[in-house]
Each structure stands twice: as C-alpha cells, then as structure tokens.
Design a protein that fits this description.
By secondary structure, this protein is of the alpha/beta class. Helix content is about 50%, strand content about 15%. It has a five-stranded parallel sheet with strand order 2-5-8-1-9. It has a two-stranded antiparallel sheet with strand order 3-4. The chain starts with a helix and ends with a helix.
Length: about 325
C-alpha cells in the first residue's frame, strides 16, 4: 500500500472514529454524573468494553467500584448482575445448573447470573479455585456449558471483578489462568480532597443522579468493529513485543538485574491485549492510529497481573509495577 493510499484510509477511518467516539463521550459524561474523581477507572472500563475484555479492579472498599459498573450498565441499558464471591460459593451459583422437574419427568437448565451483559464479580478472591474455574470458559469463549448443552453469552459481555488489597484473611490467590483472562488489572486510589468534598455533599443532600440511556448495544458493537481497524504501525507492534519479551528474557534487553525478580514473564495474551487496549485508547482520544504514548499509558494495566514475582522480589518488596517501570525505561519507543 502506498503512503498516499494509507493516508487516505486513515483520514476516512478518522471520520468514522469521530462519529462513533461521540457516543462514548456522552457515555462517559453520563457515568461521571454518579462517579466523581475516578476518571482513570471509568476510562479502563470503557477500554475493556471496547476491547472485548474484562477488568480486575483492586482497591480499598468505598471507591465506587460497584457503582461504576452499575452506572455503565444503566447508561447502556444492558442486563446487569452482581455475584458476591464467598468461600461457600459453588460453580453452579455462577453459571447455573441442571434441575429435575417432577412434573415433566425431565431435566432443564436453570441459568446462573453469568448470563448478563455486565457481570460484577465482587471480592473475587474470596472464593476458592473451583469457583474461579467456572468463569474461565465464560470469560474466554463467551459461552457456558451446562451438561451437554453449550449456550452463548449475551453481547456485549463484560466481567468486572473487584478485590481488596489490604484484607487478606479468608482470601484465595487468583490462579494464573484466571488472572490472565483479565485484559486489565487496575489499582484504584482514593479521590482527591475536592472530589471527596463533592461526593460527601452529594450523598448528604440525598441527590441521586438519574442515569439515562445514551448509547445502544448496537453502537457498542459498531465501535468494537472499528477498534480492529485502528492503524497500528509495525514499529509500534515491535515496541509491544519487545516489552513483553523483556518480561520473559530480561537479560536479552540489558535488564539482567531483573532476572532474579521474575518467576515467569507475560503470556501471549499480554501482547494481544496490549495491542487491543492501545487501539481502544487511541479511539477514546479520537484518533484512528496508535502512538507510543497509548502503549505506555496502558502498559501497567495490561502487564501487572501477568508477571510472576519471585520470592526474592517479595523479600525486597519489589512489585510488578516496579519491573514494568524499568522495562518501559529501557525499551526505546519508536
């Protein structure tokens, strides 16, 4: 493709992006009626929605994690369900089960709360691995198998899971296979002073903003198709791959000092999701092409739960964010 044709294609794509981005600007404004001071969290939710991925939120209680996905669901007019994860939860409580009817003398399927557009898995690390495994097929294949019947999940399908970073009593470590299926892991911080003042006054006044539907499920489907067309230059592709490979073989990238801190590097899902998330980031910024800053901005969210830390790293209190910072500082951006 000649540079002239490529420029024309990007110009036409930019017009489509601006047209579709308008709906997501309205969606963000509507969510911000109820969610104050958590722009980072709202942006990551929208990236997960656009990228057909799932989002794991880590933060202390009271940071509007539950309210955020409920508000998103209301603004899209999608089906919403909330699953409270507890140690005694069973896989059937998530996906559903076969029940026997005496009247019909036959088994029928009772669908679980996973059959919704937006699913909140609250305190996901409070349930054991057998319950986590019930989510694997749903999150990856967007389908659920009960008995000998496989049923597709509604579109769009977004799982937002929350976990508390400070209360570890009665919690279970997320299996690598489970955490790898989350496109993003976001760490949510406290709102700043003025934002918290606004939150306090809004609650004290008893004012509960009415959330209107501002975007349809069809708009989301169209925008998702557009995400795959966002231009990703070969140099940026290499930048993404270098970043992921540096987490696996740090000594090959002049980062030999990190080798003892990493027990395993990021999986191929990391490079896939990093390219998709960067495209979604470009879309939200009204661009039809990805720039290195898009990759840098989203890198920690995509990689932090995919890099295994060694005992040495934990002993020296080195986090996966510290490792990603060093990789970002070393790998030359195009």
């Amino acid at each position: 493709m000649s540079e002239l044709n490529q420029a024309e294609d990007i110009r036409q794509l930019t017009e489509k992006v601006r047209e579709q981005n308008y709906f997501f600007t309205l969606l963000k404004q509507e969510i911000n009626k109820a969610i104050i001071g958590q722009e980072y969290m709202v942006d990551r939710l929208l990236i997960g929605l656009l990228g057909n991925g799932h989002v794991l939120l880590e933060g202390v209680p009271g940071l509007a994690k539950t309210l955020a996905i409920k508000t998103l669901s209301d603004a899209v007019h999608g089906d919403f369900s909330r699953i409270q994860f507890t140690p005694d939860l069973l896989p059937a409580d998530v996906v559903g089960t076969m029940i026997y009817s005496l009247k019909d003398n036959d088994f029928s399927i009772k669908r679980g709360p996973i059959f919704a557009n937006f699913v909140l898995a609250d305190e996901i690390n409070r349930a054991p691995s057998k319950v986590q495994s019930a989510l694997l097929e749903a999150m990856q294949e967007k389908q659920v198998t009960i008995g000998d019947e496989t049923m597709p999940l509604p579109k769009p399908f977004l799982v937002l899971a929350t976990q508390n970073p400070i209360d570890q009593e009665g919690t279970y470590l997320l299996p690598e296979a489970q955490s790898d299926r989350f496109m993003l892991k976001c760490t949510i911080n406290y709102p700043d002073f003025e934002d918290e003042r606004k939150i306090m006054n809004m609650v004290a006044s008893g004012h509960s903003p009415e959330i209107r539907q501002v975007i349809s499920l069809e708009n989301i489907t169209e925008a998702k198709k557009l995400i795959n067309q966002i231009y990703l230059d070969e140099k940026i592709e290499k930048y993404i791959l270098d970043m992921v490979f540096a987490s696996r073989f740090p000594e090959k990238y002049g980062l030999a000092d990190l080798k003892n801190y990493i027990s395993f590097g990021a999986s191929p899902r990391a490079s896939i999701n990093l390219s998709i998330a960067a495209r979604a980031m470009a879309f939200l910024k009204n661009r039809a092409f990805v720039i290195p800053e898009d990759v840098k901005e989203i890198a920690k969210d995509v990689l932090r739960h995919r890099i295994g830390l060694s005992f040495e790293a934990e002993a020296e209190e080195i986090t996966s964010d510290d490792i990603i910072e060093k990789i970002l500082g070393k790998i030359q951006a195009p």
